[in-house]
Amino acid sequence: MIEIKNISKAFDGRQIVKDVSFKFEKGKTNLIIGESGCGKTTIIKLMVGLHLPDEGDIIYDGQNFPKLSVKEQQEVRKQIGMTFQGGALFDSQTLEENVMFPLDMFTNLSRHEKLDRVNFCLDRVQLTGKNKLYPAELSGGMKKRAALARAIANNPRYLFCDEPNSGLDPKTAIVIDKLIHSITEEFGMTTIIITHDMNSVIEIGENIMFVHKGQNWWTGDKTQVLNTNNKELFDFVFASEYMKNLFLAGKK
Amino acid sequence: MAFQPINSIGKYFSLMFRVFSKPEKFSVYIRQIIFEINNLGISSLPIIAIISVFMGGIITIQAAFGFDNPMVPIYAVGYTTRESVILEFSPTIVCLILAGKVGSNIASEIGTMRISEQIDALEIMGINSAGYLIFPKIAGAVFIFPFLIAISMFLGLWGGYVMGISAGACSAYEYIFGIQAFFEPWKLYYSFTKVVVFAFIITSVSAYYGYYTHGGALEVGRSSTNAVVYSSILILMFSLIITNLFFNR
Lengths: 252, 249
Description:
The complex is a heterodimer.
Chain A: E1 2-11, E2 14-24, E3 29-33, H1 40-47, E4 55-60, E5 63-64, H2 70-77, E6 80-83, H3 95-106, H4 111-124, H5 140-152, E7 158-162, H6 170-187, E8 190-195, H7 198-204, E9 207-212, E10 215-220, H8 222-226, H9 231-237, H10 241-251
Parallel strand pairs in A: 3-8, 3-9, 6-7, 7-8
Antiparallel strand pairs in A: 1-2, 1-4, 4-5, 9-10
Helix pairs in contact in A: 3-4, 3-5, 4-5, 5-6, 6-7
Chain B: H1 4-19, H2 26-41, H3 45-66, H4 76-115, H5 118-124, H6 129-166, H7 172-180, H8 186-211, H9 217-247
Helix pairs in contact in B: 1-6, 2-6, 3-4, 3-6, 4-6, 4-7, 4-8, 4-9, 6-7, 6-8, 8-9
């Protein structure tokens, strides 16, 4: 479990994240949703230590991450897997080398064992046999899945996904959502997903935080999100007038 | 604003501190160093070879043209070519060319990794990204550049030999006598000291500009340009300092 307590962050005097607290539960897909520019990515970057919070605590299973030494932080980070919006695959390496990279760095497995693990991960994200392809040869959806394979290669306890299905068609997006959900359940990870895709929210949103103007505006799950009375969340969920009218008509 | 240069120097040294901290896994670093030796060094060989042969030839012709006084022995052509190639052309001019080729390559590679979040991905995995990306480049260049410059010296002298004879500036015997005359081995030590320092400057300064790139493609281009400009300036500055140290004895 990861708990954030009263975290705040400002850049050049501009408050981006304001007093946010939330509990991300183990074995569940925890979603951070909100409009573009509301501070979602900053929250996740604060959580993984790419930025330091101005205030607040980030607690990984009892360890307060910002207060740990650099060495201790690196040990926690070895248990983190993360996928980025653009995939962040290493361009000069094949898919196999990308997925094998964390194993090369942090394990003493034999080449054969590492290859087995790589093939298992690629198989798990439905990229079987694509080992020798370079990132430039992959489609958008394949890149996202490859990034997921690399993120889970080292059996992480915590999985962070920054907009894992942005820029994908709805069908592929759902495939990736379901994949993350099943991997989370299978390995009992604490998974945190940033998204503003409502399909994802409805499909896999077990524990949701809605961020608005850098603050934790609302929390709940996928069933509650559709029946919310919170105006900002309602406007976010039903951004389209057509969908809003359809939903309100259905309620009557 | 006034503190920006001091801030940059501080950031550079703090980056170098991270670069030279203990690696996560030596075997991976060794593999990367071998890759960089090939990537930064061996791949630069063709351009160095071409430039060295031509420059050696040009120096010989210019020396022969300048020494039309009968009091100056003809073997002075070979002597001048050797001194020019060993003392300045191969260590300094070739390193300036390498600053353009290798420096821009390093800055744009690391800069692109920064803007496409590949460096963030390394950091989140718990890897010291500065050490993993920059140390193998510095180590690879510091190791391979002296060999490249030795080849450049040889080819420069050979280019001078070919041009000197074919242009009728001197005989083979005179040229070879000239390049052996009054040879002082410490001058080679001086040249290779410069090369090692320049290899460090080119790779570390270029990596610094790449590592601290922010923004998009435009900024990657800017980092690449800054890497070449500042590496070149520092090469000339350190060339002056090292020359003073060696020749003011």
